[in-house]
Amino acid sequence: MILALEIVLVISAVLMTVFVLLHKGKGGGLSSLFGGGVQSNLSGSTVVEKNLDRYTIVMVIIWLACIVGLNLLQTYSG
Q1: 5 FRET partner, CA 20 to 30 A, in 16, 20, 61, 63?
Q2: Phi, psi (5° rounding) for residue 58?
Q3: Structurally, how many domains does the chain consist of?
C-alpha cells in the first residue's frame, strides 16, 4: 500500500509540474522574457485554460491525499 501511494505521489507531482508550466503567463514575468507576452493574445482559449485549471486542481488534491495517506500509514503502522 505504501509503495502504491509513493508511485501515485511521484506521478501526480510530475503531472502537476507539467500542468503548472503549461499555464499561460499573466503579466510581465518570465513568460514575456521569452516572447510569451506577444503570443498570449493569439494562442489558447478560455475553455482550455479552465480545463487546465481543473486538471491542476485535481492533481493537487491527489498529491495532498497521497501525502496525508503516507503520513498516516507510517505513523500508525507500527
Answers
A1: 20
A2: -65, -40
A3: 1
